[in-house]
Structure formats: structure tokens, C-alpha cells
Design a protein that fits this description.
The complex is a heterotrimer of chains A (about 210), B (about 100) and C (about 550).
Chain A lengths: L7 E4 L5 E4 H32 L1 H8 L4 H26 L3 H31 L7 H5 L2 H36 L9 H25 L3
Chain B lengths: L3 E5 L8 H22 L6 H21 L7 H25 L7
Helix pairs in contact in B: 1-2
Chain C lengths: L25 H4 L4 H29 L10 H20 L2 H15 L7 H22 L16 H4 L4 H28 L12 H33 L12 H35 L6 H14 L15 H13 L1 H15 L8 H24 L1 H7 L3 H31 L1 E2 L2 H27 L14 H31 L1 E2 L38
Antiparallel strand pairs in C: 1-2
Helix pairs in contact in C: 2-3, 2-4, 2-5, 2-17, 4-7, 4-8, 4-15, 5-7, 7-8, 8-9, 8-10, 9-10, 9-12, 9-15, 10-12, 13-15, 13-16, 15-16, 16-17
């Protein structure tokens, strides 16, 4: 614990200011843990119900399209790469390139959401939704599968949207030069959030789309 | 009254783009492998294999994209605490689920 | 004073007098000063505590006689639910961290504020919004919930009372708790004064640190669980509903995975406070600093492993019941470590039973009773008979109210001079304390006996043989409430007309006693440099 960088005290004739990049990062990581456990609770339920209804889960998963799932996985993985590149570019003072990469990351998020929208619409059209006609015909295990599917991918989608909102703010801060090559912890923090969203999907994907 | 400016701006070293592109290639590769393996009937092992690969991918995202490998040790400790707590929740719950005797 | 620190300017302008960009009520509602935020929590919390206490008063009035007396069964169900929800989510869980943690953690660490002052203010607003939503839920769409504070499925999915809004209120309050925990962990890692290594910080900070980890890691689980209840009620998703294939026991698992660690959120900061008060009023260095600090972390960790003891008769597997029972016994060990070290601190000390110390001594007695009865409940064979009886009600009131509640009063009496700059009448404080503790035992001890004899909890009707116990308990409640009213009357009177408090009325050694009462805006003129342990009197 002694290795944590010290906060340096300097006196100036200015009002009290306080910048602690490591503390800011720490706060963000702690927030990420709460997100991890929020989804963790859902994963616990998934694991429990998969144990109880393994055959039904396999049957229900046939309704999901692994191609869309794989494409979405690649999209998110790529967006994680591009946000990292955007941050490094900023540190190298390549502001335009950084903004470009950030914009690309944003578009990846949009693409993911568009895919999700079509996925869900298709399900709804087939009557697959809570209290929907198709679900009423399915067994208990299958209906629990879809309950978990909608809640988990829905919650995940909401977090993608939040991530995009964060990125909008970051873009604005870069534009206003409140984030610079020497002051970019906010950007890193937004990136951390995005990577977590990616990690959650890395687990969601095989558990829902690849049960055979 | 003294006024203070308290500053910490320390960041760990910056790697070049190459490292991250390599990580990305690895992640895409592992995704391809996961999908391919899903087509093979591995019966009981299927879940474990899928989860193992997912864990490796998550570890790569955390260590490199999220920079944990290069950051102060305290973050690695924090993450370990979080994971341990989560695992205990799952393990103890499964002591219930796996040992229930059905009512006759 | 402590650490050879130069005593800070005793006539500095206090934080109350500071004139910032806002004036009047806005200078409070928009303040990011940790001290003002702590006091805003205090004001709200006292209001909620008295509300829930009044509800308890009416519950006990109803229970004077079997059958309906002054209310219907439905009303009684809503009242005990409301009593539990308010006490647990608006008083005990936020409790010491929100009030005394906010006010004193930065000062005790030698800092000017917490790491994230604006997040701190947001925590308070989330707490208040949650409280308002809970009140609104009482008067809308079916009225206040009647499910008990545990919201068990399937009843919580079926009842027409306003479960969704009430549960959403708790969800919001949970966020308040999470953000406070996040703030405190970062503050403790990052804002300690130069020279204050981890093992030189006060034990109250260790208590807050261990608590903060529970707040951050456990609260999201109840967050998602409550969200699922709302989604089930609105969309019929079927994750917990047995009619749709759900498992109600999984709800209970998820609920208690948070709610058991939550009780350690309640007690760990309070135990940290005991480690402050005992050295001060024994005029002696703490015995076993290291073990006490580590025991806080140990309790926090083991606390995650025992939740199943709330589910012994619910239908979980025998294997898991045995495992949970064994783990439950384990958690008594680190608590025992603390008690041993506290007693060792007092041994050969110069003990001064001022009001804070009196409350701590009460705590040690009632918490021990509560803790020992926890062992009775932790053993499977006895639990089967005692679960869902008044024995459990007595147990948790002894540990939660006798534990955290008594120590909340202790904290008020310890830090009152520092927070408000006034001294209170110590004689009246001690009398009030005695009346409180006598009434407390009169109220709750009969419940052990009743429960043992079979009186179920959450029942508003009962068999005639329980009547004498109920009467004693109700009379006990009147005595206890009188003690509490006298206590607060004394403090309010001191707030208005008390004599000026010195910088260090108790002879404490931690940093808050080196600054003026009340503290100045930024706490310290010069950030102190720490060279000694927090209780070192050499």
C-alpha cells in the first residue's frame, strides 16, 4: 500500500483545488465493481436456472441467432480497441485522430444497438416476449430462459447507451479542451466503463447464443 | 489560512498501438474458437470450455485494454476481492441447489 | 496534544459561519462540505427514527391485547413493514457512516474533505428522494406494502399494495449507500495525512473501511433483486414467480446475500466507535490495534458467507444448512477478538464513566446478549423451533438496536461538543441512558421468553398465555421511549443554550480534538504530519 502515489501538497495563492487522478480512477473502478455485481446477480440466477432446466435452456437457445451474436461480439471488441487507441492518441496530442477513433467507437456502439433492436423485434414478431403467446406455449424452463435473456441483454443494452452518453460528454470535453494530453483521467474512466460493458457481453454471448 | 493545491497526475507508462492491436487479434481469434467449439458436441464440458475461453478474453480486456497489468498493485487486489466475493456467492448458492432432495 | 501537532487556531471561523456563494437554506442544500452533509443526514435520520419509533409505539399498543384493538390486521401488517423499512434502510444502514463518517472521517485522517465531495451530496439527495418515494408509495396505488421488509415472493408479486414504488425507493436508497462506500474507500486510500500509514489511522476509519467494501460489493445484489421484482410485477417475466417456473428460494438467496452483510454495515462502524471511546475514557492506549483492525476486515468477509441462516426452514438442502450453520458460528470469533481487546484496554486504565462511556458499557452487555442468542439461532436444531417467533425479533433488536442504536446515541454524546460547539448536561444524559436501557430490556427481554414458548412474529393476534409478556413489553416500550425523549430533549436544549464546548472536553487523542469546536471550514489550517499512533499518549 506504500507504493500508492502520494498526493503532493503545494501552496499557491489560489482557492483550494484538488486533482487526484489515481483517486479518480479508483472511484471509477469501485463503481465498476457495483456494475459487475449487478450483472453478477443475474449471472447467478442464470447459472441456477440453467442447472435446473438444462434441456429447456438448450431448446430455447435455438431461437437465438449465433451469427448476430458473433457479429455483435466482434463489434464490441473492436470498439474497445478503438477507444484505447483514442486515448493513446490524445496523450500523443493527436487530437484529430483521437476524436476520429472516439467517433468510430461511438458508431460501433450504435451498430450494436441497431443489431439488438432487430433481434428483439424479430422475437416480438414471433410472439416471444414476457406474457406473449409463444412463451405461453413453452415450458417453464424455456420461459425462464427468455425472461433472463430479455432482462440481461436489456440491462446490457441500457449500459451501452449510458456508455455512449459518457462518450458524448468526453467528445465535448475534448472539444472544449477540458480534456488534454496532460489531463485525461475522465477519458480513461469512460474507457474503463466501456471495457466493462464489453466484458459483460463476452460472458453473455456464449451463455445465451452458443448453447448446443 | 494556507490554501493548498493538491495534485496527483501520475499515470503508468503508455504502450504503442501495436500491443493493443495484437490483443484485439487475440480476442477475435478466441471468439472464432468459441463459436467453432460450440458446433462440436462436448456434452458436460461445453459450459466449462466456453466459460474458460470467456475468462481468458475478459482477462485480456482487463489486463491490457483496462491497463490493470501495468497499473498500481492496489487495483489487482481490488479486483481479486471482488471476484472472490462473487465466487463465494455462487458456490454457497450451489450447495443448496445441487443437494436438494425432491419431495416425493 | 496528540502527535506533537500544533493545536490549530481555536478562534477560527467555524464552518457554520462560512459565507460561500449560497445563503440561507441553499448554503446547506447545495453544500459539498462533508460536515454540512453529515448534519443534513443527521436531521433527516432523527426524523425518520422518531417516525419509525412512533409506529413501533402504536404496534406495541395494538399488541397489549389479543385480537383487534386499535387497528385492523391489514394495517398492522403495513405498520410492521413500514417500521422495518424505515428503521433498516433509512436509519440503521446509513446510520453511523452517513452522519459520523461523513462529519469525522476526513478530520480523523487529517484531510479537508472526502475524495468526491459532489458525489457525497448526491448520496444525500438519493437518500432523501428514496425516502420521499417511500412516503408517496404509502398514498398511491394500493397503499404501503404489507409484505414485511423482506418482500418475499410470491406474495410480493401478488399483493395489490404498492410494492413497485416502495421497492424502487429502497433501490434508490441503495445507490446512496453504494456511493458513500465508494467515496470512503477512495478517501481512506488517498487522503490520509502525511505520516499516517494504514496502521496509524483511527480504528473508526478501519470500521468505515470494512463497511464501505460491503456497501460497494453487496448492495448491487439487492439492487438487481428489487429491480426484478418491479419487472415481474409489470411485465410478468417469470424469474421468481413459481407459477411461471421461477424459484422463490432463489429470491430469498439473492435477498439475504445482501441483507446479511447489511447487518455488518450496521455494526462495523459502531464497533469502530467503541474503539475510539474506550481508549479516551480509559485514558490509555488501545490494546491490540492490529487485531482489532484486522477483525473488522474479517467480519466483513465472513459476513458474506452466512446468509443461509435466514433460510433454515425455507426448504434449502440439508448440506447447505449444515455449511451455513458452521460458517455462522465462525463469525463470532472476530467479534470476540474485539471484545477481548476492548476489555484489555480498560484493564488498569483510569476509567471515567462519562455519558459516551456509559452507552458503550450498555452496548457491551446488550450486544453480548444479542450475540449469544444469535448462536442459539445459528444452531439448526434450535433454530427450527425458534425461527419466525418473537425470539428472532428479540435477537435482532438486541444486536441492531442495542448494538448500533445504543452506539449511535454514544456517538451523539461523544461528538456533540465537536459538532455543535456546545456542552450538554451530562447528569441528565446519564439518567436518560439508564431509563432507556431499563426500558429497552423491559421491552425486548420478554420477547425471548415469548418466542421460546411459541409466540409467532408478525402476528397481530395471539393466544391468551402470551398476554402477560406482551403487557410487560409494551410497558417497557413506554419507559424506553421516555428515556429516548429525555435524551433528545437534553441534547436539543444544549444545542440551543448549552455552554461553550472546549476543543477537547474528553481528553481524546485523535485529530478531531485538535481543532476548534465546531471545526473551521477546511478543518485544518495546516495539514498535520503524523508521527504517532492514534491513541498513543506518550
Amino acid at each position: 500500500m506504500n507504493q500508492e502515489p502520494e498526493i503532493v501538497l503545494e501552496t499557491h495563492a489560489e482557492p483550494h483545488t484538488h486533482r487526484d487522478d489515481m483517486g479518480s480512477k479508483m472511484g471509477m473502478w469501485l463503481f465498476l465493481f457495483t456494475e459487475l455485481l449487478l450483472f453478477g446477480g443475474m449471472f447467478l440466477l442464470y447459472a441456477s436456472y440453467r442447472y435446473m432446466y438444462s434441456a429447456a435452456f438448450t431448446a430455447a437457445a435455438l431461437h437465438l441467432d449465433p451469427v448476430v451474436g458473433t457479429v455483435n461480439t466482434i463489434i464490441l471488441l473492436t470498439s474497445s480497441l478503438t477507444v484505447v487507441i483514442a486515448i493513446i492518441a490524445l496523450q500523443k496530442n493527436q487530437i484529430r485522430f483521437s476524436k476520429l477513433m472516439l467517433g468510430f467507437t461511438f458508431l460501433c456502439g450504435i451498430a450494436f444497438l441497431v443489431n439488438k433492436f432487430f433481434e428483439w423485434s424479430t422475437k416480438f414478431q414471433h410472439g416471444i416476449y414476457p406474457k406473449g403467446p409463444a412463451l405461453a406455449d413453452m415450458s417453464n424452463g424455456e420461459s425462464v430462459f427468455f425472461g433472463l435473456y430479455f432482462v440481461m441483454t436489456g440491462l446490457h443494452g441500457l449500459h451501452v447507451i449510458v456508455g455512449l452518453i459518457f462518450f458524448s460528454f468526453i467528445y465535448y470535453f475534448i472539444y472544449k479542451e477540458k480534456i488534454t494530453a496532460t489531463n485525461f483521467q475522465k477519458f480513461e474512466n469512460a474507457g474503463l466503463y466501456w471495457h466493462l460493458v464489453d466484458i459483460i457481453w463476452i460472458f453473455l454471448f456464449p451463455l445465451f447464443y452458443l448453447i448446443h | 489560512m494556507d490554501t493548498n493545491t493538491e495534485i496527483n497526475t501520475e499515470h503508468s507508462h503508455t504502450s504503442g498501438y501495436g500491443l493493443y492491436i495484437s490483443v484485439w487479434l487475440g480476442l477475435v481469434g478466441l471468439t472464432v474458437i468459441t463459436v467453432a467449439l460450440a458446433g462440436i458436441n462436448l456434452a458436460g464440458l461445453a459450459v466449462s470450455v466456453a466459460l474458460a475461453i470467456a475468462l481468458i478474453k475478459a482477462g485480456m480486456v482487463a489486463n491490457y485494454f483496462m491497463h490493470v497489468k501495468f497499473d498500481n498493485k492496489v487495483f489487482k487486489i481490488f479486483i481479486s476481492v471482488c471476484i472472490v466475493i462473487f465466487l463465494t456467492m455462487i458456490i454457497l448458492t450451489f450447495f443448496d441447489l445441487t443437494y436438494r432432495t425432491p419431495v416425493k | 496534544m496528540s502527535n506533537g501537532v500544533i493545536v490549530q487556531n481555536p478562534t477560527a471561523e467555524s464552518f457554520y459561519d462560512y459565507k460561500g456563494t449560497h445563503s440561507g437554506i441553499l448554503s446547506w442544500l447545495l453544500s459539498t462540505d462533508h460536515k454540512r452533509i453529515g448534519l443534513m443526514y443527521l436531521a433527516a435520520m432523527i426524523t425518520f427514527f422518531f417516525t419509525a419509533m412512533t409506529i413501533g409505539f402504536f404496534m406495541r399498543l395494538e399488541m397489549l391485547a389479543p385480537g383487534g384493538a386499535i387497528m385492523s390486521a391489514q394495517t398492522y401488517n403495513s405498520l410492521f413493514t413500514l417500521h422495518g423499512v424505515i428503521m433498516i434502510f433509512l436509519f440503521i444502514i446509513p446510520g453511523l457512516p452517513a452522519v459520523f463518517g461523513n462529519f469525522f472521517l476526513p478530520i480523523m485522517l487529517g484531510a479537508k474533505d472526502v475524495s468526491f465531495p459532489r458525489l457525497n451530496l448526491l448520496s444525500w439527495y438519493l437518500y432523501m428522494i428514496g425516502a420521499v418515494l417511500a412516503i408517496v408509495s404509502m398514498y398511491t396505488a394500493g397503499g404501503f406494502i404489507d409484505t414485511g421488509w423482506t418482500f418475499y415472493v410470491p406474495y410480493s408479486l401478488r399483493t395489490s399494495s404498492n410494492v413497485s414504488l416502495a421497492v424502487f425507493a429502497v433501490f434508490i436508497i441503495g445507490f446512496s449507500s453504494i456511493l458513500t462506500g465508494l467515496n470512503f474507500i477512495t478517501t481512506i486510500h488517498r487522503m490520509r495525512a502525511p505520516g499516517m500509514g494504514w496502521f496509524k489511522m483511527p480504528l473508526f476509519a478501519w470500521g468505515l473501511y470494512a463497511t464501505a467494501w460491503i456497501q460497494v460489493l453487496a448492495t448491487p445484489i439487492i439492487g438487481i433483486t428489487l429491480l426484478l421484482i418491479i419487472l415481474e410485477r409489470f411485465f410478468g417475466i417469470g424469474i421468481f414467480d413459481p407459477a411461471l417456473g421461477g424459484d422463490p428460494l432463489l429470491y430469498q438467496h439473492m435477498f439475504w446475500i445482501y441483507s446479511h452483510p447489511a447487518v455488518y454495515i450496521m455494526i462495523l462502524p459502531a464497533m469502530g466507535l467503541v474503539s475510539e471511546i474506550i481508549p479516551t475514557f480509559s485514558k490509555k492506549n488501545i490494546f491490540g490495534y492490529g487485531p482489532i483492525a484486522m477483525s473488522s476486515l474479517a467480519i466483513a468477509f465472513v459476513g458474506y458467507l452466512v446468509w443461509g441462516h435466514h433460510m433454515f426452514s425455507s426448504g434449502i438442502s440439508d448440506t447447505s444448512r449444515v455449511i451455513f450453520s458452521l460458517l455462522t458460528f465462525l463469525v463470532a470469533i472476530p467479534s470476540g477478538v474485539k471484545i477481548f481487546n476492548w476489555v484489555a484496554t480498560m484493564y488498569k486504565g483510569s476509567i471515567d464513566v462519562r455519558p459516551p462511556m456509559l452507552f458503550v458499557l450498555f452496548f457491551i452487555v446488550v450486544f453480548s446478549i444479542g450475540g449469544l442468542t444469535g448462536l442459539v439461532l445459528g444452531a439448526l436444531n434450535t433454530d427450527i423451533h425458534l425461527t419466525d417467533t418473537y425470539f428472532v425479533v428479540a435477537h435482532f433488536h438486541y444486536v441492531m438496536f442495542g448494538g448500533m442504536g445504543t452506539l449511535f446515541f454514544a456517538g451523539l454524546h461523544y461528538w456533540f461538543p465537536k459538532m455543535f460547539g456546545k456542552m450538554y448536561n451530562e447528569k441528565i444524559a446519564k439518567i436518560a441512558g439508564w431509563i432507556f436501557i431499563i426500558g429497552f430490556n423491559g421491552l425486548y427481554f420478554p420477547m425471548f421468553l415469548m418466542g421460546y414458548l411459541g409466540m409467532p412474529r408478525r402476528y397481530y393476534d395471539y393466544l391468551p398465555q402470551f398476554k402477560p409478556y406482551h403487557i410487560i413489553a409494551t410497558i417497557g416500550s413506554w419507559i424506553m421511549i421516555s428515556g429516548i425523549l429525555l435524551m433528545f430533549g437534553n441534547l436539543i436544549s444544549a444545542f440551543k443554550r448549552g455552554s461553550k464546548a472546549p476543543m477537547n472536553p474528553w481528553g481524546g487523542t485523535t485529530l478531531e480534538w485538535t481543532i476548534s469546536s465546531p471545526p473551521p471550514l477546511e478543518n485544518f489550517d495546516k495539514i498535520p504530519v503524523i508521527t504517532k499512533g492514534p491513541y498513543d499518549r506518550s
